[in-house]
Structures are given as C-alpha cells and as structure tokens.
C-alpha cells in the first residue's frame, strides 16, 4: 500500500488464504483463529432473542445475585468485611494506587509527543464516527460529570478549610488533621491555592490518565488488532491465545462486577442526593417513594437512550448535558466573582503544576489522612470505573489518532476541570471569606451546590438546572454503562439483540431499588471500589500492551 | 417495472433468509433488474468480520455467489455503524436513496407482541420510504 511507511511490518490486505484484510488503510491485525462470538449461546426464549457469552454472562449474573442477596440478608456482617477490606487497601496499599496512577499519567503524556502518537485508531484511513462536540460530550458525560456537580463546591471548600486550619498532632504523634501536604495555617491566600490544587489534582490528569490507558489499549486492540471489544483483549500481548479461556473470562467478569455495582450503587446514592436536593428546593418529601420514583424515572430515560443507540440516544443526551453544564458554568462565572475566577484559572493551574509532584508522591507521606482518605480513595474509585468509562471511550473513538485521543481524553478534560472547579470553588470560598456566609460550609455535601447557588441571583432557575443536570448526568452514565456491560457479556459483540441491553439497564435499577429499601448501598459500593486494586494491575498490563501494540502499527500520514 | 432491487442481508444468519433470497432471484429475473445487497456492520470487530473492510469483501463475495445463481447484475453497499442494532432502520432507509433502489425485498419475522416496543425492521422501513417494500416471512412458499 502506498501510504505505508517503512515501519515494522504492516500486513498487506490479501494475506493468507482467507485473508484477513487490514482495517481501513494500513494497520497490523493480530493473527488469531478465534471468531468473535464463537463461545456465545444464541437462543430465543419466549420470542426474545439472546446472544450471550455463556460463561461470562452466567458467572457474572450468579456473582451479582449472590452479592446482592448476601448484602441484603447479612448487612450487619457484610458491611464491616467490605469496609475493612477497603480501608486496608487505601491505608496499607495506598502507594499502589498512587504509583500506578502516576505511571498511567506519565505514559499517556509521553505518548502524545512520541511518533506513536501518529497512529490512527481503526487504521490509517479510518474516519471518525462522531464529530468533536458529540465525541467530547460523550467522553466527559461518561467520565465524571456527576462528581463535578457534587464536589465542585464541597471539595475546594473542604480542602481550603483543612489547609487553613493547619496541622494538628494526635497523642501518638500522628497527624489528626485532614490538610493536604503541610497545610497553610492562617495563610488565607496559600490555603486557597493549596485547596484548589488538591481539588484539581483529584479531578485532573490522574483520573483521566486511568481512563485514557483503558480506552486507548482497548481501542488499539479492537480497531487495529481486530480483537473483540472486551477487557480481556488488552491481555493479548501477555497471555496470547489464553485470553479466550478462563483468565480472559475472569477479567471480563470482574469488569462486569465493577461496572454494574459501581453504577447501581451510584444510582442509589445519587437518587438519595437528588431527592435531598428536591426536598430542599421544592419541599418534595424526601422518602422512599420519591427515591424509587427517581430511580424508575432515570432508568426509563436511560432505557430510551440505549434503545435509540449510541448515535441518537447517548450522544444527544450527552450533548444536552454539556450544553446545560456550560450554561451553569457561564452563569456562575458571570454573576460570581468574575475577576477572581478569571485570574484564578491561571493561578490554580500553576498551583496544580507546582504541587503536583508532592501531591502525587506515593511514598513517605506525612499527610496520611489526606493522601489515604482522599487521594487513594479517589484513585480506587476512578480505577474501578475505568473499565466502564474506558470501554465506552474506546467504542466511540475510532478514526482518531492516538495523539488526538490523548489530548481529548487527558488534557482537555483536565483543563475543563480546572475551569469548573475554579468557578464553583472560588465563588463558594469568596462567599465564606468576603461575605461571611457559613451556610454552604455547614450544609450537607449533597446540598452544598444548591446552598451556594441560593446566594447568587436567579437561584430558583439555576437550582432547577442543577437538579436536572444531576439527573441527566446519571442517565448518561447509566446508559453507556449498560451498553458496556452488554457487550462484555456478549463476548465483545456490540450488535447483540436489543433485549439484552434492556435487561442490564433494568437490573441496574432493580439492584439500586432493592439496596435502597433493604439497606447496604454503601457496603456494596465499597465492595465495587475494592476492584480498584486488581484493575490497577490490569491497567499496568494495559500500559505494556499499548506500547507493544503501537510499536507494530504503521503511522498515519 | 423495477430497475434496482435492494436486499438488506445479515451475513451472520444467511441460512434463515433463504426464502427472501429466492424471491429476489425470481423478481430480478422477471424484471431484468439489478440487485444491490446491503449489509450493516459494527465498526468494532464482530462475528462476521474483524474490520469493516473485511466485511465489504465478504459481502461482495456473497453477491457474486448470488449473481451466479440468478444471472442478474449485482452490486453491494456496506453500512458501518458504531451501534448497528440501534441504527439499522434509519441506516437502511438512508441506503435506499443512496443506492437508488425502487424495490426493497427484505426478510422479516412474523408480527409478535414485542413489536409494540421494538418494531420489526421491515415494518419500520416500509413506513419511511417511497420505494416499494416486499417483506418475506420465514418459511415462505413452504
């Protein structure tokens, strides 16, 4: 082919007898006899067609059912087990998360500048399936949307507060304060700067680094190497053909477990928060009926979205989401302390860069409460979510170059987080400092955003937009999550019959309702977060796989 | 009367659409029409092909095989979609104009209750196109 460079050994299309041709333009397919869907079971019970990977579907369903029943039946016994497991991970093994996350970010940043950044996902001539606005909206809505709503106000305020409070020692010589790094006792300006840096740190390069690694490795191994779009495929360079057996099944089952429980518990907890907001704003009773109705409503809209598909459902909803979020952001910047926010963006970005080495240091940390209770907790969270977000990102990123992909998944969202956190954080901190308003700080976490908005003009409208955003962000996570689980349990097929994706969206809602009424949401969420540890290892393999995979790819012109 | 017959086919389930293929062969011969076989594939690797390009080749090979059976001129059209299951109907409707077909022959399943929430593809296509549509039930002519 004329457009091939002299790189490695890109294969010609008509190679071998049957000849697996290159993806559109030059690329380097993996030669395997495995046919996608060969282990699948197809049937149509009661006129409903199914096409499932027997082992992955059965085992994940059984494990999920078992966990739900156990948690419901023996909540008192299970909760401490999950909690101690998780606290062991975030205290004793916090360095694994911090170190792993640093590796992901560094690799992703380095790849932008290497010649490997020129490789195009889907082959040298592939064209993008989605335009920039839709693509970026989907990346962002699946990736973190909802968290920005809840932590945009509370985290900057919280870290500012603890940093301003300074260091306090317990009797055992250990720090009892939650300040990041050394704090900034009594120094208002320094405390703001450190607080913002710590917040941006948790919402910046590191979470997106984890997503980028999963997304890129899956995209390369699916679109360029021709392997199915499931987690197991990134293990091909390490395990070879064994990924089609139990090692592969286990990886996929773990991904289903993390994704489903991550989504279902977030749905449950998110409904609690949305309901508290509705109660605060409109006096709607904050009880089980409201909660169940909210979950049902979210599930129904998510169902509609996945029935319409990625293009007409998920993409449009994500764009709506982005539009609303942008409106709210512009509003807060305009009516908040505009000048402070404008100068703050650059200052906070610099503060982030300056504090980044110290904040991301995995060893010898003195601020254990902060680095374990906040950072390691977040890292476990992001990494546990990365199979879901990464797989979805991979699916919609065909046709982009690696460089384009990494800039869009790593750099742009980080900058967006900087602007968002600065706007909401600065406004809230300014309310506390300049106007002496303490209600925001005192409010419950889920209400802090609304309390802040109340002190700005037009709060009836903006609070309503806020509530809608919270709900829509849930829907956009829920629909993309169901699509991901469906394709994992269908052995990597994205064209499995529709009833299957409906099934997963319903299960998600059902689990959320069951745990909400029966108790144990928090416990099961903790259980989902513990998958952050195995997935840290999976992602490290992903790093190796990316480099290995990209080295054998021809570059795009 | 008809110049170009469009036939949406599912390469993964070629055996179940045999009655439709037979119908197409007879109609094409009768009207001396060209037959355009249309296939839809996901952009991700799937069971039929690992890349869209491989899919096109398989579709072309299939069309040539059919040409040997009915002797009418054939062409193919590949639709690549990020979510084929959801986009199928709209993509097919779009393809009718794109390939310039005046008759669509497609296999379909008998009506069932689930159609209320998930309408059959044939029914949906028929309500959204100016071209004539011929839906062939499974086991037709037996």
Characterise the protein shown here.
The complex is a heterodimer of chains A (about 550) and B (about 140). Helices cover about 70% and strands about 0% of the residues of chain A. Chain A is an all-alpha fold and about 550 residues long. Helix content of chain B is about 40%, strand content about 25%. Chain B has a 5-stranded parallel sheet, with helices on both faces. The radius of gyration of chain B is 14 Å and the shape is globular. The model of chain B has no long low-confidence stretch (mean pLDDT about 85). The interface between A and B is medium-sized, with 45 and 25 residues. Chain A: InterPro entries: BCCT_transptr. Chain A: Keywords: Cell membrane, Membrane, Transmembrane, Transmembrane helix, Transport. Chain A: Belongs to the BCCT transporter (TC 2.A.15) family.
What class, by secondary structure content of chain A? mainly alpha
Major sheet characteristics of chain A: 2 strands, antiparallel
Radius of gyration of chain B: 14 Å
| Biggest interface, residues from each chain | A-B, 45 and 25 residues
CATH class of chain A: Mainly Alpha
Number of distinct beta strands of chain B: 5
User: What number is the mean pLDDT of chain B?
Assistant: 85
Could you say which overall geometry of chain B the principal axes of the C-alpha atoms support?
Answer: globular
CATH architecture term of chain B: 3-Layer(aba) Sandwich
Question: Topology, pairings included?
Answer:
The complex is a heterodimer of chains A (about 550) and B (about 140).
Chain A: E1 40-43, E2 50-53, H1 54-73, H2 75-92, H3 94-113, H4 132-143, H5 145-165, H6 188-203, H7 205-224, H8 236-239, H9 246-282, H10 288-335, H11 338-359, H12 368-395, H13 402-435, H14 439-442, H15 448-454, H16 459-489, H17 498-518, H18 521-529, H19 532-551
Antiparallel strand pairs in A: 1-2
Chain B: E1 4-9, H1 18-31, E2 34-42, H2 52-70, E3 74-81, H3 84-99, E4 103-107, H4 121-126, E5 132-136
Parallel strand pairs in B: 1-2, 1-4, 2-3, 4-5
Membrane topology (chain A): Multi-pass membrane protein
InterPro entries (chain A): BCCT_transptr (IPR000060)
Protein name (chain A): BCCT family transporter
């Amino acid at each position: 082919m004329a457009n091939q460079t002299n790189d490695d050994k890109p294969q010609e299309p008509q190679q071998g007898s049957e000849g697996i041709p290159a993806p559109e333009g030059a690329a380097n397919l993996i030669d395997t006899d495995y046919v996608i869907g060969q282990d699948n079971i197809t049937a149509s019970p009661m006129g409903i067609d199914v096409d499932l990977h027997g082992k992955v579907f059965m085992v994940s369903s059984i494990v999920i059912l078992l966990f739900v029943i156990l948690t419901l039946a023996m909540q008192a016994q299970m909760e401490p087990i999950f909690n101690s497991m998780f606290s062991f991970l975030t205290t004793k093994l916090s360095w694994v998360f911090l170190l792993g996350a640093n590796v992901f970010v560094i690799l992703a940043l380095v790849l932008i500048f290497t010649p490997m950044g020129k490789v195009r996902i889907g082959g040298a001539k592939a064209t993008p399936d989605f335009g920039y606005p839709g693509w970026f909206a989907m990346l962002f809505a699946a990736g973190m949307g909802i968290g920005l709503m809840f932590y945009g106000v509370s985290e900057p305020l919280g870290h500012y507060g603890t940093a301003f409070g300074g260091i306090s020692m317990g009797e055992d010589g250990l720090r009892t304060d939650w300040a990041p790094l050394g704090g900034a006792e009594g120094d208002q300006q320094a405390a703001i700067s450190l607080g913002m840096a710590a917040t941006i740190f948790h919402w910046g390069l590191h979470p997106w680094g984890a997503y980028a690694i999963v997304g890129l490795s899956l995209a390369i191994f699916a679109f360029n190497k021709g392997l199915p779009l499931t987690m197991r495929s990134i293990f091909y360079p390490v395990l070879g053909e064994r990924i089609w057996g139990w090692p592969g099944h286990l990886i996929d089952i773990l991904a289903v477990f993390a994704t489903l429980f991550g989504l279902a518990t977030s749905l449950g907890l998110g409904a609690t928060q949305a309901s508290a907001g509705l109660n605060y704003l409109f006096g709607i009773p904050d009880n089980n009926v409201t909660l169940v109705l909210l979950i049902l409503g979210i599930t129904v809209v998510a169902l509609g979205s996945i029935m319409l598909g990625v293009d007409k459902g998920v993409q449009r909803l994500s764009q709506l989401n982005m539009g609303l979020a942008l409106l709210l952001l512009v509003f807060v910047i305009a009516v908040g302390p505009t000048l402070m926010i404008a100068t703050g963006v650059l200052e906070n970005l610099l503060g982030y860069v300056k504090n980044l080495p110290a904040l991301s240091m995995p060893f010898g940390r003195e601020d254990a409460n902060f680095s374990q209770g906040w950072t390691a907790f977040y890292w476990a969270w992001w990494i546990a979510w990365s199979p879901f977000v990464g797989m979805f990102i991979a699916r919609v990123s065909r046709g982009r170059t690696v460089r384009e992909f990494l800039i869009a998944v790593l750099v742009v969202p980080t900058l967006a987080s900087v602007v968002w956190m600065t706007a909401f954080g600065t406004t809230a901190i300014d309310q506390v400092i300049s106007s002496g308003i303490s209600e925001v700080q005192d409010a419950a976490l889920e209400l802090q955003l609304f309390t802040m908005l109340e002190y700005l003009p037009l709060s009836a409208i903006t609070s309503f937009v806020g509530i809608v955003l919270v709900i829509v962000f849930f829907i956009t996570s829920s629909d993309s999550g169901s699509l991901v689980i469906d394709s994992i349990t269908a052995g990597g097929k994205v064209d499995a019959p529709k009833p299957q994706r409906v099934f997963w969206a319903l299960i998600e809602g059902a689990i959320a309702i069951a745990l909400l009424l029966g108790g144990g949401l928090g416990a099961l969420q903790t259980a989902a977060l513990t998958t952050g540890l195995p997935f840290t290892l999976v992602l490290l393999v992903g790093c190796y796989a990316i480099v290995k995979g990209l080295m054998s790819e021809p570059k795009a012109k | 009367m008809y110049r170009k017959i469009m036939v949406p086919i599912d390469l993964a389930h070629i055996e179940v659409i045999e009655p439709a293929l037979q119908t197409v062969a007879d109609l094409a011969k009768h009207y001396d029409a060209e037959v355009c076989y249309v296939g839809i594939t996901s952009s991700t690797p799937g069971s039929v092909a690992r890349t869209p390009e491989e899919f096109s080749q398989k579709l072309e090979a299939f069309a040539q095989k059919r040409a040997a059976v009915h002797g009418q001129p054939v062409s193919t059209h590949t639709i690549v979609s990020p979510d084929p299951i959801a986009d199928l109907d709209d993509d097919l409707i779009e393809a009718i104009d794109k390939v310039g077909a005046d008759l669509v022959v497609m296999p379909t399943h008998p009506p069932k209750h689930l159609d209320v929430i998930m309408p059959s593809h044939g029914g949906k296509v028929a309500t959204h196109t100016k071209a004539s549509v011929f839906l062939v039930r499974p086991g037709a002519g037996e």
